[in-house]
Amino acid sequence: MDKIKKGIIALFIGASAIYLLLTQLYPYHLAHKAQFTLPGGWPTEPWALTLLLTLLGGTIGGLLRWLGLKRWICYPITGTLMTLCALHACDIQGRWFHLPNRADEQILAIDTEAHRNNWKRVQELTQDCAKSDFNVYYHNLSLAHQGQLADSLLHHSAPFEYALFYPIDETGNYMSISAAGEVWWFVKDLTMAEHAAMLGMIFSPHHTGVRPLKRLYEINMASGNDKSAAKFARILKAHDIELPLAEPMRTVRPHTDTLRLSFQYDLMLRSTLERNPANKPALEYLLCLDLLLKNLKDFRSDFERYGLPHNSRLFQEAMLILMSMAPELRDAWHDYIDADVYQEFCDFNAAMQQKRKSSQMQAFRSTYWYYFQFQKRAE
Amino acid sequence: MSKIWYFNLLAAFVLTAASCTPTPHDVQQTEDLLSLYPDYKNICIPCNMAPLNFLVRNEGVDAVQIQVSDLTWTNRGNAIVWSETDWHSLTKQYTGDTLQVSLTARIKGQWQKFATFYWYICPDSIDRYVTYRLIEPGYEVWHEVDIEERCIENFQTRTLANGKQLGNRCMNCHTHGGDKGQFSYFYIRGEQGGTIVQRNGELRKVSLSSPRANGGSVYGDWHPSGRYGVFSSNKIIPAFHSNPAQRLEVYDTRSDLMVVDFDQDTILTCKEISQSQEMLETFPCFSADGTYIYYCAAPNPISGKEATAQEMQTAIDTLQYSLYQIPFSSEQGIIGLPERLYTIDKGSISFPKCSPDGQYMALSYSQNGTFPIWHREARMIILHIERDHEGNSKTLQPLCQTDIHATYHTWSHNSRWLAFASKEADTQYSRIHFVHLDKDSTGALRLSKPIVLPQQDPNADDMNLRSFNIPDLSQQSMPYGTQQIQNLMERVQATPFK
């Protein structure tokens, strides 16, 4: 009996050690996997995983000892099998096991912290925007959540519309699709947010999960679709999952419906603003999109219709270009322009008149004038 | 030893006590509304249907008792789950009768009796099988699509085509034909795909793609003889509403019809119903005697030109399909000219289906467009086909309609029941509903209250995250399964049609 007790204690300690090691190596893998399963599936909760490993180890070890194998053979085999099972628990794509992969962990960290609304942490994790469009997208989204999108948009890589939106297409996976929906939820385009949440759930390994179900519940509560919200609520409650706080979204104007194709980002943002012109996140995104696409005509009409979310330097820089093209705007927009911004614009124009190349204009690299003049789409 | 014996005795006692079902006592009558899912109050039930298992959704219910005739059943929890034997004995004994159903529930310790409701056991049976596509409502894309066959008389379900086995391809609606459902087809997209045709037990894979016919087949129907099929081929565009209550709009930029001869392996087209960009033709079906093709058509609002967003919005808002007919001859093919038969004022018609007895037509209508599954205002309407002395269909008289969302309907072999898909329950996932067509005391035709296809576990619909799409009724089970379909896909080349 003493030996069995010691064995169980040793196994429990061993299992806990394996678990703790995994949480250090794979903290975000475990968290991400929990988001896309429901309780009752393969256990990823700490206590369940440790208990399972203990039972597994006890069963395998006991079986091997019963077969007459010596301890120095049993223990490594038991430990290896327990570790492999734990590695399988960490895999998010249904493979046999998953070895530590820092690149994957980085992506999952960004995605998980965004889901937790830790936007400061997301900003830190995505500092190196040159790595990927995924990083750029989340970096800008984190800035937008902190009201700094326009102010910092051109301080890093800005691949046109992909700086702001992540496409949902056949090249994506459930993670990128779910990520793509975060911006729509932020700007409150509920149709597109639901589209991304639904597709993210459909393409996830188990076609369900706490995260997409909660998001679908929130979206349908916001849109006033009580029947749909009730369905998702029932699933969550059946698995003892607490419902997120959610309430119907305020719509200021009677709604005029607009049909949009999946790539018509500007149309989506405008129709969202028509529902609620006070939607500052949507307005900031729309104006930034106009500027990234170098569509100054739309920028002007959107500004004149919806105003500015705040008087960011980026918008002033764009307005200066428009004012130089249309003198009639100078009086109307004069008060928006800060003196130092105007002076820098004059300096930029003077430098451009000397026919300098982009490499000689690095001092203006973070300005919209530089972007407008030199940024080209990749071939 | 005696310790183990006492332990076993104690365990047996505890288990027995836990499993005892509670018995109603101190029952109080209540005026509260009884909330059931599915809503099986005051309904007409086909005499051969599987047990109607359901949930009592009133808040706080932890025990229920139901009494129907001399059958009483009590359970912990809020689910009523019948024994199949008891249920079939009940329906067999009381076919043609109306039964009073009494339900008592324990809510927060107090037994409460709700107002009784009735079940009418209809002597008209329904077809034994329904096939449907199980698909997640993924809008533009799909992941795992299956085609399943469910026996309506019990809960047996089998998969006819498994999405995973077939490389996660999209599969189209499975459609039966013939008085017993002895013909059927469905379409598998992608590489090595094709139309899987089954006629009297023989399976074939054919390619119905034709440049003249604007590409592959989408919607279709069987000629009563089983020799011909009529199909539409559509260029489909999905778009997203800014109003989240409406979600998705799907429209065609081009659609045409073609008739397929499965004996001669040929495709027949004619300029009246195909090869034209000015008109959009879709949702074809044959009349019950096979002498007419009915279809929906509308002028193409954008017909090949580039449209701005506003123009597109206006075009779709005003896109209203009417019902047309064109004569068809088994010997000569399509003959005569199209004739507009029916229009709904400020409405768009879709999915006409003729009853097997030739008397009625069911169709869906919505405010606009051609994809009623996403239109919450879509309803099914039953019309009487009035014919002249020569038997030509001349007019359609509307008789009755559903008062819930209804699309993609199918008739039973006896023209008494219809099955349709509806998202009424949660606006997101469609479920299969059944309605019975009969006459009231004044002789007017009416539809019974729709009833949802019952599941063995009444919680199944709540937990299910896939839609039951495009139901199709059949008297007989399909003579093939997933393995035959996989073999056909992987080893057989599709026979091209000329």
Task: Give a structural overview.
The complex is a heterodimer of chains A (379) and B (498). Chain A contains 19 helices and one strand. Chain A has 379 residues and is mostly helical. In chain A, 63% of the residues lie in helices and 1% in strands. The termini of chain A are far apart. In chain A, α1 packs parallel to α4, α5 packs parallel to α7 and α10 packs antiparallel against α11. Chain B is mainly beta and 498 residues long. Helix content of chain B is 10%, strand content 44%. The longest helix of chain B has 18 residues. At the A-B interface, α10, α12, β1 and α13 of A face β19 and α3 of B.
Number of E strands of chain A: 1
Largest sheet of chain B: 7 strands, mixed
User: What's the mean pLDDT score of chain A?
Assistant: 86
Q: Oligomeric form of this entry?
A: heterodimer
Number of separate helices of chain A: 19
Give the gist of this structure.
The complex is a heterodimer of chains A (about 375) and B (about 500). Chain A is an all-alpha fold. Chain A is about 65% helix and about 0% strand.
Itemize the secondary structure elements and their pairings.
The complex is a heterodimer of chains A (379) and B (498).
Chain A: H1 2-25, H2 27-35, H3 46-66, H4 71-90, H5 102-115, H6 119-125, H7 133-145, H8 149-152, H9 174-187, H10 190-202, H11 210-222, H12 226-238, E1 259-260, H13 265-275, H14 280-292, H15 296-306, H16 313-325, H17 329-333, H18 339-353, H19 368-374
Chain B: H1 2-19, E1 28-29, E2 36-37, E3 43-46, E4 54-56, E5 61-68, E6 71-76, E7 79-80, H2 84-93, E8 98-107, E9 110-113, E10 117-122, E11 129-135, E12 146-151, E13 157-161, E14 175-177, E15 183-188, E16 194-199, E17 202-207, E18 220-222, E19 228-241, E20 248-261, E21 266-268, E22 279-286, E23 292-299, H3 309-317, E24 322-329, E25 333-334, E26 339-342, E27 348-354, E28 360-366, E29 379-387, E30 393-401, E31 407-411, E32 417-422, E33 431-439, E34 445-447, E35 451-452, H4 460-463, E36 467-474, H5 482-491, E37 495-496
Parallel strand pairs in B: 1-9, 3-10, 17-37
Antiparallel strand pairs in B: 2-4, 4-7, 5-6, 5-8, 8-9, 8-10, 11-12, 11-36, 12-13, 14-15, 15-16, 16-17, 18-19, 19-20, 20-21, 22-23, 23-24, 24-25, 24-26, 27-28, 28-29, 29-30, 31-32, 32-33, 33-34, 33-35
